[in-house]
What does this fold into?
Amino acid sequence: MIEMKVAGIALDAVTRSPIVLLKDGSERRALPIYIGQDQAKSIIGAIENQKPPRPLTHDLIANLFDAWGMSLEKIIIHSLQDNTFYAILCMKQGKRKKEIDCRPSDAISIALRTNSPIWVMEEVIADASIPVDREADEEERQAFRNFLDKLRPEDLIQRGKLEKNDEQ
It folds into this structure.
């Protein structure tokens, strides 16, 4: 799993649909997730630390967590199926832990209100992320190619012997 942060909300140039953009810690990969208008407003409100005069849905949920002594340990965006992302809320109350199915947009909005981390499974990032820093990606690919070019069969044999000795 990779921890990600909300980079902001963008609009799709063609459909004008809102997209929440998550970035990894190195800011080299971004994960765009299409969301609804209401979810976009809620996420923007949380990013800007807006306090509505009355609690809105995600504020209410965060208030319920507090009232019942529950904490949101993290959210996990765990899969992508048929262009739909799936997430869970990882809750804790005392020693009890519970995972609750949740739309990613709602999970992100609640995580922002509770200062909880946002995690994404590596498979989801591999399938749906976009490169942010193409130059750094190319440098990494080139470094790997250079490593492979210099790799000799003897190096692999030697490494295998070292690992075998470590197991004994």
Summary: The mean pLDDT is 87. The first strand starts at residue 2 and ends at 11. The longest helix spans residues 134-150.
